[in-house]
Amino acid sequence: MVDQPGWEGGTKGRVIVGVGGGIAAYKACQLVRHFRERGHHVVVIPTESALRFVGAATFEALSGNPVSTDVFSDVPSVRHVNLGKQADLVVVAPATADLLARVAQGRADDLLTTTLLTASCPVLFAPAMHTEMWEHPATRRNVATLRADGATVMPPASGRLTGTDTGAGRLPEADEIGRLGELLLDNPGALPQDMIGLSVLVTAGGTLEELDPVRYLGNRSSGKQGHAIAAVAAARGANVTLITAAQHLPDPAAVETHRVISAHEMQEVLMEKAPGVDIVVKAAAVADFRPESVSESKLKKGADDEPETIRLRRNPDLLAGLVNARAEGAVPSDVTLVGFAAETGDANGSVLDHGRAKLTRKGCDLLIVNKVGRTEAFGQDTNAGWILRRGGGEEAVPTSGKYSVSARIFDAVLTFRRERADTASDTE
């Protein structure tokens, strides 16, 4: 195949960024930059309406490639066919109600819709519109059609819309759209709609234990893995609740988010929400200890009350508490419990040795074991480790993006749930 003119400015995948004609079109500029900074070739195909919000010169400068909206530009190269055929990924953001309707009907009346008809690569739509338009039965039917045709349609975020309106319909953050897109580049089948009807509860981030109004005890967890898990679950159709101590990370799209600080705050929300879900993924790095006493004022160096030592008390084990609650009936018996083990290895065993022992000790269904350190896992965009299953079975997870790791986790969780259901039916 002869390369389509215009695939310049990158060394990795070929990404088409389609832009619909909505006020959120300006956010597509951040998405183009996201892919370009990660080494991808990017071609922007806006609708004619989109250019009323952001000019072609802006998209050309950011992508390094020419921009057109109709099928009559550069006719000899047959761009309306070859762009889609040569793309590795198409991301449409914002996907307006009108654009979703035209694509669902198979329309081909501009360069973007024609390109979508010729694309055989993964296609990711990020909708943005007013809440009433998103919730309208016609839009729901169009989204269902696109998903049935194999496209991934993200649920929109909730928040401020145009004017004073708020609600579901806000375009998700460019970073979240971009990372889901990169997940599809790495694994085109990573976002099936196989979690519709399931409720997922995720914990994320490192809890902070207050020492005085200024200082705290904490750990190096950034919360990125937990937020990625929540985003991937929502993209696969689940109803997701996130309890996060990562104050600096934005809420994932279409996820009910509760922000906490300490282990006790996380425990309170966790035990309130866990009885009503199907899957709990406890990815948070909960501090094992907290100061025995908390000063009401800042502790001063050299002051008469400067502490010579800081006494610590053990925090509750949230994962063990969930397992006990399930055994006692406070949490339904069919809830799948997934834990995380951040290990370093020592003279008493390897990372995997400690993970196996922790799975036996905790009694959860699956345990994700990570090797961590000052420059490993914590704060990084990649992760690696093993998925251990109660009753036996281990799966190595090679170093990959945290969204990719999240998809692997849910593949394993759903397999576990299917096998458990099959076993239960065989014994009836």
TrEMBL record:
Pfam family name, one: Flavoprotein
Annotated ranges, domain DNA/pantothenate metabolism flavoprotein C-terminal: 197-414
Chain spans, region Phosphopantothenoylcysteine decarboxylase: 1-199
Cellular compartments per GO CC: phosphopantothenoylcysteine decarboxylase complex
NCBIfam families: coaBC_dfp (TIGR00521)
Annotated stretches, region: Phosphopantothenate--cysteine ligase: 200-428
Entry GO MF terms: FMN binding; metal ion binding; phosphopantothenate--cysteine ligase activity; phosphopantothenoylcysteine decarboxylase activity
Family the entry assigns: In the N-terminal section; belongs to the HFCD (homo-oligomeric flavin containing Cys decarboxylase) superfamily.
Cofactor comment: Binds 1 FMN per subunit.
Keyword terms: Decarboxylase, Flavoprotein, FMN, Ligase, Lyase, Magnesium, Metal-binding, Multifunctional enzyme
Function: Catalyzes two sequential steps in the biosynthesis of coenzyme A. In the first step cysteine is conjugated to 4'-phosphopantothenate to form 4-phosphopantothenoylcysteine. In the second step the latter compound is decarboxylated to form 4'-phosphopantotheine. Catalyzes two steps in the biosynthesis of coenzyme A. In the first step cysteine is conjugated to 4'-phosphopantothenate to form 4-phosphopantothenoylcysteine, in the latter compound is decarboxylated to form 4'-phosphopantotheine.
Catalytic reaction equation(s): (R)-4'-phosphopantothenate + L-cysteine + CTP = N-[(R)-4-phosphopantothenoyl]-L-cysteine + CMP + diphosphate + H(+); N-[(R)-4-phosphopantothenoyl]-L-cysteine + H(+) = (R)-4'-phosphopantetheine + CO2
Keyword Cytoplasm found: no
Flavoprotein domain: residues covered: 14-159
Enzyme Commission no: 4.1.1.36, 6.3.2.5
SUPFAM superfamilies membership: CoaB-like, Homo-oligomeric flavin-containing Cys decarboxylases, HFCD
This protein's pathway: Cofactor biosynthesis; coenzyme A biosynthesis; CoA from (R)-pantothenate: step 3/5; Cofactor biosynthesis; coenzyme A biosynthesis; CoA from (R)-pantothenate: step 2/5
Protein name as it appears in the record: Coenzyme A biosynthesis bifunctional protein CoaBC
Cofactor field: Mg(2+); FMN
